[in-house]
Amino acid sequence: MKFNDAIFGAILLALGIVVLAVVQGYPGIPGQQVGPALFPGLLAIGLCICGAMLLAKGGRERHAVAWVRLGDWAASPRHVLAAALVIGAVLFYIFASERLGFLPTAAISLLALMLAMRVPPGRALLIALIATLVIHTAFYKLLRVPLPWGVLTPIAW
Amino acid sequence: MSAALLQAFSMVFEPYTILVMVLASLYGLFVGAVPGLSATMAVALLVPVTFFMQPIPAIAAMVTATAMAIFSGDIPGCLLRIPGTPASAAYTDEAFAMTRKGMAETALGAGLVFSAVGGLFGTVVLIVAAPALADFALNFSSFEYFWLVLLGLTCAVFITSDRPLKGMITLLLGLLVACVGLGNPAGFPRFTFGNAEMTGGIGMIPMMIGMFAISEVIRFAVDTLPPGEVVVEKVGSVLSGQWALAKKYPVQILRGSVLGTAVGALPGAGADIAAWMSYAMSKKFSKEPEKFGTGHVEGIVESGSANNSALAGAWIPALVFGIPGDSITAIVIGVLYMKNLNPGPTLFTTNPQNIYAVFMLFIIANIIMIPLGILCIKVAKRILRVPRNVLMPLILLFCIVGAFAINNSLFDVGVMLAAGIVAYLLEENGFPIAPAILGVVLGGMLEENFITSMIKSDGNLAGFVARPIAASLAAVVLLVWLAPLLRKLWLRGRRTASSTAA
Predict the structure, then answer these.
(1) What's the pLDDT score for residue B232?
(2) Residue numbers of A between 83 and 112 with CB closer than 8 Å to B
(3) Could you tell me if A93 and A64 lie in one domain?
(4) Considering the entire predicted model, what is its pTM?
(5) How far is CA A138 from CA A131, A149, B402, B404, B422, in A?
(6) Would the keyword Membrane be found if you checked this record's keyword annotation (chain B) (predicted)?
(7) CA distance A116 to chain B (A)
């Protein structure tokens, strides 16, 4: 997904201005000229300058470079689905793993992703189940990472 | 000294460490050989596992996995014309041309043998230079450190990137991320939005897993190009003819190793830049430059040794100053801090056994690379056939668990996802990622030394150039900053001169 430089420039300029505004409220260190606002303030000024330069560059190229250009994948539903599922799987884990537990969350995510990437259903199911169990054993049993059990708490091993 | 050496020896040759090295080697060879999985990603994925190890096995795992991955990146480059890691990209066309001429084993063998030679050369330089530099660095005050960090960041933006403006932007973003949290001179919670998780700052490791692994998984998901075909059916003896090559191209091997070590030691420039520069140099000084690109081994010999020597070179500033030479050592520095092995000159005086152990690990990693590399080349065809549509979902799950495992926090999983999406979008639009990583790693150090120096000199900027070393470093920084401008002026001057002459 390619954007015209002007779009990035505008975002960075805005970010720089917001940071500058936020650091104004930071307290100083009594008896000293430098405080927690100085360093991020300098960075924000840098961002504003670079953002403005990028904005100008993108503006000059606006006839040659489109504002937004999607890749070939945008025309292929399979690739759009796969990309959405990559991001969706992580979000699903963040919001569902505590309640649902690691094993079901991971297995469902793996299965969905592999199906979207055209792995045959039988093989995808088998790999999803085995991989989930292997990763769970490695991290939960061997490395002692407290992966959540969720709905499977009664049968936790 | 001998007691420390002995201690280092016993730490390295412990069965557990050796086992870790063998497993990490196989893992590194595998990740490097699969196109789309880079050496940096191999290390980023290793971090959650090393988190549970003692310091020496943890470093051993990272050193060996990187060395192997940088070599094995040559394999798909040679057989599929798809470089396994960016460090192999410089000579992929050459190696593939050799494969088409039926010389795949010579190309792969040259990559393997001279990678090991370059790696050992870089290690020797590391062993000789690092302690001497550390001695020197003990006299450094916050002024020198400020300029040194600034020089590192400046190099990352101006030398290693063809787009200084975009590199500058990613650097500023990285530095800004480093500002988040309580870790500042006043201990004031900055940019935390009242969120308790953010007062500790943005976790470096989840961020790196996101930037190097998640962005790669996204890139695979939207990749519409068909997979490449393996050309070679059978690879013969890999080692035959390598001795003859070593006798024919000693200057090239030495030049590649020296350049690789130097480029590696330069902050921000890693093995990939070393390989590109070295390949170009090889062609420039070759007696038969017309053969380059047609399947000629000379460039592979030189840049193959360069990319592995760069790995050891990158450790020089990392160990001595705590300034990473490339994105891999940036990750390693994060791990060293987690293990309370704070990199810097005092590491050499307080924990010499750890430094000796690191040196030994480098030597062993480069030696076992040869037998394991041969094994890897033998099974290359199978590795290359591993379906990536199965692998990528597994890597995604591994990333999630890995990011979670650092602090047992779902917040870090969110950081990883955000970093991955941002890194993907930035790279798609021509923004280099390495400066951002260096910014995150070095932001705290830069600010701390800047503020300390400001307080020491009572806000007088002249204090920053009052000491001779600080002043020289400042001059170098200024020179790098002005170099693009000077070049432009020089070119314009030449153009005017030639037009008046005409």
Answers:
(1) 59
(2) 83, 85-87, 89-91, 93-94, 97-98, 106, 109-110
(3) no
(4) 0.85
(5) 10, 15, 11, 14, 30
(6) yes
(7) 9
B66 vs B205: CA distance, rounded Å: 17
Query: Where along chain B do its domains lie?
Result: 1-222+238-492
Per-residue pLDDT tens over the stretch A40-76: 999 999 999 999 999 999 989 888 888 888 888 888 8
In degrees rounded to 5, what are phi and psi of residue B318? -65, -45
Phi, psi of A38 (to 5 degrees): -60, -55
Q: What is the pLDDT of residue A18?
A: 95
Partner residue opposite B186 with nearest CB, options A33, A35, A145? A35
With CA atoms as reference, report the closest residue to B396 among A78, A74, A93, A97.
Answer: A93
B416 contacts on A by Cβ (under 8 Å): 90
How many CB atoms within 10 Å of residue B446? 21
> Which of A7, A38, A43, A109 would best serve as a mutation to test chain B binding (most B beta carbons within 10 A)?
A43
* Token reading at B359: 């040196």
Segments of chain B with pLDDT less than 70: 1, 36, 159-162, 226-235, 268, 501-502
| pLDDT reported for residue B143 | 92
pLDDT at B333: 86
Q: CB distance from A9 to chain B under 8 Å?
A: no
Which pair of tokens denotes residue B31? 């990740």
* Backbone φ, ψ for residue A2 (5° rounding): -105, 135
Point out the domain boundary residue: A48, A69, A90: A69
Q: Which of A26, A53, A69 is the last residue of a domain?
A: A69
Q: Is B237 helix (H, G, I), strand (E, B) or coil?
A: coil
Q: Domain check: are A103 and A119 in the same one?
A: yes
Mutate to test the interface with A, among B50, B154, B169 (most CBs of A within 10 A): B169
Distance between CA atoms of A4 and B57, rounded to whole angstroms? 47
Using CA atoms, how far apart are residues B295 and B41, in angstroms rounded to an integer?
A: 30
CA–CA gap between residue B391 and residue A74 (Å, rounded): 23
Positive or negative: CA dihedral B156, B412, B38, B49: positive
Question: Which chain B positions have a beta carbon within 8 Å of A51's beta carbon?
Answer: 169
Q: What is the ipTM of this complex?
A: 0.95
Shared-domain flag, residues A78 and A120:
yes
Q: Which of residues 27-56 of A touch B (CB under 8 A)?
A: 27, 29, 32-36, 38-40, 43-44, 46-47, 50-51, 53-54
Question: What are the beta bridge partners of residue B190?
Answer: B181
**Cβ B50 vs Cβ B209: under 8 Å:** no
Q: Based on the domain organization, do A65 and A79 belong to the same domain?
A: no
* Helix H or strand E segment including A126: helix A121-136
What local confidence, expressed as pLDDT, does residue B28 receive?
A: 92
- Are A79 and A142 part of one and the same domain? yes
* In a shared domain, residues A7 and A53: yes
Alpha-carbon gap: B176 to the closest alpha carbon of chain A (Å):
6
- Rounded CA-CA distance B288/B474 in Å is 42
Are A151 and A85 found together in one domain?
A: yes
Buried/exposed code over B281-295 (b: 16+ C-beta within 10 A; e: otherwise): bbbeebeeeeebeeb
**Cβ B83 vs Cβ B77: under 8 Å:** yes
pLDDT at B173: 95
